[in-house]
Amino acid sequence: MAAIIGDCFIFILLCLFSLLFYYLIFRKPKNSRLVAYGCDLPPSPPSLPIIGHVHLLLSSLAHKSLQKLSSKYGPLLYLRVFNFPVVLVSSASVAYEIFKAHDLNISSRDNPSIDDSLLIGSSVFGSAPYGDYFKFMKKLLVTKLLGPQALERSRGIRADELERFHSSLLDKAVKKEIVEIGKEATKLSNNSLWRMSTGRSFSEKNGEAERVRGLVTELDGLTKKVLFATLLHRPLEKLGISLFKKEIMCVSDSFDEVLERVLVEHEQKLDDHQDRDMMDVLLAAYGDENAEHKISRNHIKAFFVELFFAGTDTSAQSIQWTMAEIINNPNILKRLREEIDSVVGKTRLIQETDLPKLPYLQAVVKEGLRLHPPLPLFVRTFQEGCKIGGFYVPEKTTLIGNAYVMMRDPSVWEDPEEFKPERFLSSSRSTQEEERREQALKYIPFGSGRRGCPGSSLGYIFVGTAVGMMVQCFDWSIKGDKVQMDEAGGLNLSMAHSLKCTPVPRNRPLLADQ
């Protein structure tokens, strides 16, 4: 009898759990406002039972699988992750409408519960809700590190690191060694950001530099899992499941150890600093009871983790992709080198101040970013329901924008798959204002709106000076006729096969100065 009662109790629990699961997964989203808006949801392609369209987002090249989906069903689609709504935008004109009319509505992100352990807790600036903390940190970031005046103050640091980059390549050229461009570019961007923000150089001797670069690489490997968690966390957290917490905490703790040591060093020398760097500014805000917004020690650490992650790999990959395109297009290499030689000459390295006088180099950089945007997908959340492209988008719908597709849209780009820097050169018929409006519509390698990347100007500088120096100072030989341009999986757009080539010095006066 007791066994029968026990079996019945287990059966009742299973039934209750099944009902709960059915409620979480199959209940209809609330679309009562459809009538009020007088429009339907965006079209939705066929989906799988229970999971909806999750399998499309699990592709190793999600931007490519979503590109095929939009090509078949349209530029604005309504997807399901289990029972939770996702809107996929693959059209530049639709994205422009969203950023122009609904930018504030999509300025926050609905983050997974793992954010409590991600990057030193829930203190991450980039994923913070659009509010006082986000505005305060962005203001500091722009005024003290990434704004025009701040970039001018730190120009000497980047010039030093560019010389180091040149010396490293020259040393390998003399020894006829093969260079892994992505690895060397990572050192350049990582060292530059570290010095700009902390006022100190990485120590290569004690392994500090290599350790931080390794942590950034590990963090990059977790980014796709984090994006996946962002989409899945609502159904799964209700069932008590925590995603990827152990992996993320491991990287987070390692970063914490490195940054705590640097923080202590700065605190001990805070009064001695005459030229305050970004870490000094944040420590001052941390200790100021009357600060515009009170920040914690973890806020500072999270900020630097995010800064190195966002600024290091993206810049390095953009340098690598652009150099690969240049090597694969000898005519473009020839024209670019002629421009640099005529403006800069052959007796000194290219400098940041040369960039405004090198329009073709600027066009090459822009074209590289168009074809290979650092982040092919961007994710936001609609905080309120609204009307987009004639369709209704419910509140709390996740927005996925496919920037990769938007910048290869044949309706707005001529020969979109071709590497043609000339498309970014000003014509006599176009005014600068017209060009700016056109760029805002279709060119978004760094996102757009309030959540657009605040480091875009620094990104252009990193890529422009690095690519310019490599073209100015070296010829490049590769194995085979062409560089393989296959893409690797991940949240950042990376090369599946790292660009490896041998540099050959071409400017003897520069060589003699070393």
From TrEMBL:
Primary residence: membrane
Binding-site residues for heme, renumbered to this chain: 453
Keyword hit for Zinc: no
GO MF entries: heme binding; iron ion binding; monooxygenase activity; oxidoreductase activity, acting on paired donors, with incorporation or reduction of molecular oxygen
Keyword hit for Ribosomal protein: no
A Pfam short name: p450
Family assignment from sequence similarity: Belongs to the cytochrome P450 family.
Protein name per its UniProtKB record: Uncharacterized protein
